[in-house]
Amino acid sequence: MQLPFKFYPKQPIAGDKLIISYNNGILLDGLEKNIYLKFGFGDEFIEGKVFESKMIKKNGEYLTVVPLLKSGFLFIAFKDNFRNTDDNNRTFYRIGVKSKE
């Protein structure tokens, strides 16, 4: 399954700054819009602990940087200003974050 986003570094470690590029998702429909990253940290997704960041449009994709505060999982989803979401069928996408050793 191809993800609607890319991220770097590919094996993130707590303390890294993660670059996320939304470049292949359902929200990229050619309309002029804002796209936001919704994200949360932990071992499981908790709706009350979700943050939001406006992404920057550059060359047809949307970019943002997220500081990885701790190990576990980074849960992410995307939304636009028309209330459309790309959230992996309401389960959020997960990126594993390793601890510093």
From TrEMBL:
It comes from the Bacteria. This is Uncharacterized protein.
